[in-house]
């Protein structure tokens, strides 16, 4: 406040006609606001801004630079408070527009104006941003600055500072204004100037970029003469070589300090690729070395905590030797800042453009293999390989990473597995070539890089590429090269390099797993390729004896003996990860370990162990047959981790445990491709879970203060193999159930949701589902969670409720009336009411609530239906189902509602024929089967309509014939859809409708025939091809998931003919259209066509 008061008083004392004093006052404003980080209150800001604006209007031009610098300092982070001055500054004849005009001869003045404009564009969290019109004006101004060329009378440093101010302004608009770039010309113009600035002053490179880039699938070559490039190459290589040598001696504490800033708590795939995107985000940081630089250090800028700053290259960090000093060194430093600023701005631009639009510019920024005789096009990799500044190289790799993130769908078109010679190059081959070139360039950069910080970025970029590339469609070999070249970096002296190397290995084992190429790599012996570089791998990685001795189960290796699978020694990656996790470190702390002070312990640094745990989990998930040979040892690793004090290590130990459990579950599924003798034996799985339940798992579930850890432990406990659970000791079974029922009452929604889901898994276990007490306890626990305030808890509870009611049906079918009588009527009523209530919840809850309703209504006995207490609840639940079928809910909800009504129709205790709700249900299903956009919903409605087993269930003749007519119309419309993706279901839809039509014909009464005959007279010829197609094609699955053969379909048709012929004989020709004759004609056509085909 004192500073503001001094400044206001100074302005009051200095009249505008005293220009020398005005200049000095403006310098004072500029200096004090920067020096003392002053937040100017609104009243004083208004006075000072008015003074500056009046001074700009009245004073001579020689004072304008100082006045604009004061203005820039005043508006910095005060944009929302300056609204009433915007017309004066940014209006049609606004002062800042005049001074920043491309025709402005004074470059210093233009730079000061652009800088003020950029500061106005800074956003303040929680405050309104610039209006659209002002944003557009600013954007165009910045763009014109960036498009301008340096004239002879402008010195390099001033021009660099002008470009930096404009880049900072664009970045502020994109970040703060959440500006979305939509127009192609706007995007193209911005990308063109960013490409130009990315290479500004890069030694040995001179390129011309067009004023706009246009989206195109083909490469856009830069206008460079090959001769010029050849001349510049020797200089470039010389520069690069000398730069490498210098850097080797310059990995100073400052640099390692920067690298060591990775968050130890998030060393996962997301962290290393996602959180690290912020690390070099280069936000709205001050871009010029003059005023307001202290703001960067003081963290005034919301993004500066994630930034390394465009301009803070001190002499200790500089990439140039003292001998090169002087003005040339300074110019290079400023040019490097422009390149970094352009790359930072590009990063923000990527976030402001839709990915599908961005990938239209792929060839302008991503390298492609050069054609014969053509120069290599310049790209982000040019900077990553040739820029002398490690910081700029890291920025380029950061941008490339952002480009690659989420590119899986775009890259999925790539294909070069087949060597077909074509007259043209397909787009798929162009993209494949680009992917190959990216691998080549990044591996080149990996070998050449000496800065640990940039090395980390290269490896992360490789991990992003690996995660998104479609290796199954590419020639094998790419991953082998990456695998072999990354091995030496596992033992790099910098811990961040080691962590990112593990991340890359994790990406390799998780991409499109299992890949044959990766399977071969995993089978390589432990020692291969490990000591191929100067960075020797610690000796402990070369022997598996130590870690196996460290684990009690390793001596006998029962899985190996029992399952008869497993190599003589573990795969290199599994061996490496286990060693990092369980063995004490052999070497002293590396320089960068200082960033993890709690970790100069006996073990490897925490981020490294966390990454190793995640890679191990990915390896188990993608290549379980390879990991299963060490099943018990890996269980021991998970146990060890869960016994540690560090909650993040415990958490990833629990995740590893879950993956091991899930791997066994997948292997033992009935449809599993793994031969029974190759599976982990159930006896070993029992040993495994006995070890877990006697170890730290129960304690973690009961006592952990960390909700995320408890949640993971819950998920792990739910991954137990049902056959193994039944063989556990009784007290251990009770322990599991008690823990889950207890956690279902947790106050933390994450834990409660996980417990509710786990109970939904346990309720399907054969040894538990027949225990009425367990079913009742689980039902009450699930109902409790179904009323929770958390939507996630309710969604998981609804899923479990669906499973619980599935169990009721299984028990009804296997145990008969005894189970139905033992289950409390009161509990059944609670289930019905709660499921009805849940069916009105959000869609994620609703989809399983309607599934549960169908099951409960199917389960009800005549005594329940007759009970007055149940009557109202039954009516409400039926109305809820009918309403859901015809609602605008998601397709999964409607699909389940149709399925549920089909289940209701299976219950003979419900009065289907005469009840008013039955008419509504048939009407809703008939409407959906004709007109729903989603074919899967139509299929389920047709299925439901074919379930009632007696004619009286369908009600009156009028209702029966309405259902018949609806199915005939549905068959004719079975190819009508606006969504191309639905066509793949049209065959299944026709099969289900034909099945329903034949079912109705088999049940028809004599009174139904006139209407059926009339429909066939009008539409018989239209639907005949579909019926013939139904008879002809086999291989369709029925409701139970089993295949129906052609003979069965013909028998159904013959059955309908026999039934109708009998009725028609009784009527003695009173029916005008003989329905049986129509069907006989269809059958004859089918038989003739079959005979012709066979002949």
* Average pLDDT, all residues: 83
Approximately how much beta-strand content do the residues carry? under 5%
Number of strands: 0
Helix count equals 54
Unreliable stretches: 218-324, 529-543, 554-567, 1037-1043
Largest sheet: none
Note the gap between the termini: 101 Å
By helix and strand content, what is the structural category? mainly alpha
Which descriptor suits the 3D outline? globular
Biased composition (Basic residues): 241-251
Biased composition (Basic and acidic residues): 221-231, 252-265
Organism: Certhia familiaris
Protein name: HEAT repeat-containing protein 6
Report on the architecture of this protein.
With 1095 residues, the protein is an all-alpha fold. Among the domains are: 2-179, Leucine-rich Repeat Variant; 226-504, no CATH class; 706-807, Leucine-rich Repeat Variant, CATH 1.25.10.10. It has 54 helices and no strands. Helix 46 packs parallel to helix 48 (916-931). The longest helix is centred in the first third of the chain and has 26 residues, at 327-352. The termini are far apart.
């Amino acid at each position: 406040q004192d500073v503001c008061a001094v400044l206001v008083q100074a302005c009051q004392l200095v009249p505008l006609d005293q220009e020398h004093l005005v200049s000095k006052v403006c310098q004072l404003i500029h200096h004090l606001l920067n020096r003392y980080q002053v937040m100017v209150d609104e009243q004083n800001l208004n006075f000072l801004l008015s003074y500056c604006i009046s001074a700009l209007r009245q004073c001579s031009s020689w004072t304008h630079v100082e006045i604009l610098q004061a203005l820039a300092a005043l508006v910095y982070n005060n944009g929302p408070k300056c609204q009433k001055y915007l017309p004066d500054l940014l209006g049609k004849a606004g002062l800042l527009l005049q001074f920043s005009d491309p025709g402005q001869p004074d470059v210093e003045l233009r730079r000061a104006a652009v800088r003020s404009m950029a500061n106005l564009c800074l956003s303040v969290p929680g405050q309104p941003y610039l209006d659209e019109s002002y944003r557009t004006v600013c954007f165009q101004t910045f763009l014109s600055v960036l498009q301008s060329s340096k004239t002879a009378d402008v010195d390099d440093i001033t021009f660099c500072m002008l470009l930096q101010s404009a880049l900072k302004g664009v970045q502020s608009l994109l970040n703060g204004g959440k500006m979305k770039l939509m127009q192609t010309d706007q995007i193209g113009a911005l990308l063109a100037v960013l490409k130009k600035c990315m290479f500004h002053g890069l030694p040995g490179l001179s390129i011309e970029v067009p004023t706009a880039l246009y989206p195109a699938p083909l490469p856009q070559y830069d206008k460079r003469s090959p001769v010029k490039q050849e001349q510049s190459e020797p200089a470039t290589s010389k520069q690069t070589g000398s730069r490498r040598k210098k850097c080797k001696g310059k990995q100073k504490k400052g640099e390692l300090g920067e690298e060591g800033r990775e968050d130890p708590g998030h060393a996962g795939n997301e962290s290393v690729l996602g959180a690290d995107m912020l690390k070099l985000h280069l936000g709205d940081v001050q871009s010029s070395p003059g005023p307001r630089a202290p703001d960067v250090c003081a963290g005034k800028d919301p993004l500066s905590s994630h930034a390394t700053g465009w301009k803070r290259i001190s002499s200790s960090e500089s990439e140039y030797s003292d001998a090169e000093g002087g003005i040339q060194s300074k110019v290079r430093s400023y040019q490097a800042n422009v390149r970094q600023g352009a790359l930072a701005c590009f990063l923000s631009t990527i976030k402001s453009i839709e990915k599908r639009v961005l990938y239209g510019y792929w060839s302008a920024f991503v390298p492609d293999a050069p054609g014969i005789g053509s120069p290599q096009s310049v790209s982000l990799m040019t900077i990553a390989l040739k820029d002398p500044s490690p910081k700029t190289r890291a920025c380029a790799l950061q941008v490339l990473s952002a480009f690659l993130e989420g590119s899986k769908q775009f890259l999925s078109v790539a294909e070069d597995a087949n060597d077909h010679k074509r007259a043209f190059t397909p787009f798929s081959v162009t993209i494949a070539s680009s992917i190959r070139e990216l691998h080549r360039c990044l591996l080149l950069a990996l070998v050449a890089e000496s800065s640990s910080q940039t090395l980390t970025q290269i490896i992360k970029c490789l991990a992003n590429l690996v995660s998104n590339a479609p290796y199954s469609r590419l020639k094998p070999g790419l991953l082998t090269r990456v695998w072999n070249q990354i091995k030496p970096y596992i033992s790099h002296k910098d811990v961040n390099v080691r962590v990112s190397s593990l991340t890359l290995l994790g990406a390799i084992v998780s991409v499109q797993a299992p890949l044959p190429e990766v399977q071969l790599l995993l089978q390589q012996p432990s020692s291969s390729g490990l000591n191929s570089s100067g960075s020797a791998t610690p000796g402990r990685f070369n022997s598996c004896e130590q870690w196996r001795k460290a684990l009690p189960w390793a001596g006998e290796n029962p899985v190996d003996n029992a399952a008869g699978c497993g190599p003589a020694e573990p795969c290199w990656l599994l061996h490496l990860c286990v060693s990092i996790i369980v063995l004490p470190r052999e070497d002293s702390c590396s320089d960068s370990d200082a960033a993890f002070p709690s970790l100069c312990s006996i073990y490897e640094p925490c981020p490294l162990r966390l990454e190793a745990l995640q890679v191990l989990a990915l390896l188990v998930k993608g290549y379980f047959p390879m990991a299963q040979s060490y099943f018990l040892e890996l269980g021991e690793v998970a146990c060890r981790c869960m016994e540690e004090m560090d909650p993040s290590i415990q958490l990833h130990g629990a995740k590893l445990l879950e993956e091991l459990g899930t791997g066994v579950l997948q292997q033992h599924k009935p449809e599993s491709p793994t031969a029974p003798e190759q599976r982990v034996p159930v006896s070993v799985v029992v040993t495994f879970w006995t070890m877990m339940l006697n170890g730290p798992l129960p304690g973690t579930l009961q006592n952990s203060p960390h909700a995320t850890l408890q949640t993971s432990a819950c998920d792990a406990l739910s991954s137990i193999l049902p056959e193994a659970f039944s063989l556990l000791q009784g007290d251990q079974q009770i322990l599991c159930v008690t823990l889950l029922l207890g956690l279902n009452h947790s106050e933390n929604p994450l834990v409660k949701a996980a417990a509710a889901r786990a109970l939904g898994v346990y309720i399907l276990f054969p040894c538990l589902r027949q225990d009425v007490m367990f079913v009742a306890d689980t039902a009450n626990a699930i109902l409790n969670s179904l009323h929770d305030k958390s939507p996630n808890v309710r969604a998981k509870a609804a899923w479990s409720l669906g499973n619980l009611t599935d169990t009721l049906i299984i028990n009804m079918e296997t145990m008969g009336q005894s189970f139905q009588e033992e289950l409390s009527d009161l509990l059944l009523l609670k289930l019905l009411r709660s499921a009805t209530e849940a069916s009105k919840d959000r869609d994620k809850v609703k989809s399983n609530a309607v599934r549960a309703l169908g099951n409960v209504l199917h389960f009800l006995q005549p005594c329940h239906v007759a009970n007055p207490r149940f009557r109202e609840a039954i009516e409400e639940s039926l109305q809820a189902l009918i309403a859901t079928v015809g609602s605008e809910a998601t397709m999964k909800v409607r699909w389940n509602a149709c399925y549920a009504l089909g289940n209701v129709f299976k219950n003979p205790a419900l009065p289907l024929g005469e009840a008013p709700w039955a008419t509504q249900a048939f009407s809703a299903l008939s409407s959906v089967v004709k007109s729903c956009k989603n074919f899967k919903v139509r299929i389920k409605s047709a299925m439901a309509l074919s379930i009632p087993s007696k004619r009286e269930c369908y009600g009156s003749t009028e209702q029966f014939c309405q259902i018949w007519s609806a199915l005939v119309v549905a068959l004719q419309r079975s190819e009508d859809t606006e969504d191309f993706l639905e066509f793949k279901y049209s065959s299944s839809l026709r099969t289900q409708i034909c099945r329903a039509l034949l079912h109705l014909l088999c049940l028809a009464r004599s009174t139904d025939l006139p209407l059926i005959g009339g429909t066939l007279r009008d539409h018989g010829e239209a639907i005949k091809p579909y019926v013939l197609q139904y008879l002809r094609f086999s291989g369709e699955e029925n409701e139970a998931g089993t295949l129906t053969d052609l003979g069965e379909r013909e028998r159904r048709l013959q059955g309908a003919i026999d039934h109708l012929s009998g009725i028609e004989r009784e009527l003695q020709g009173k029916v005008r259209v003989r329905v049986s004759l129509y069907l006989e004609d269809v059958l004859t056509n089918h038989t003739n066509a079959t005979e012709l085909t066979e002949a």
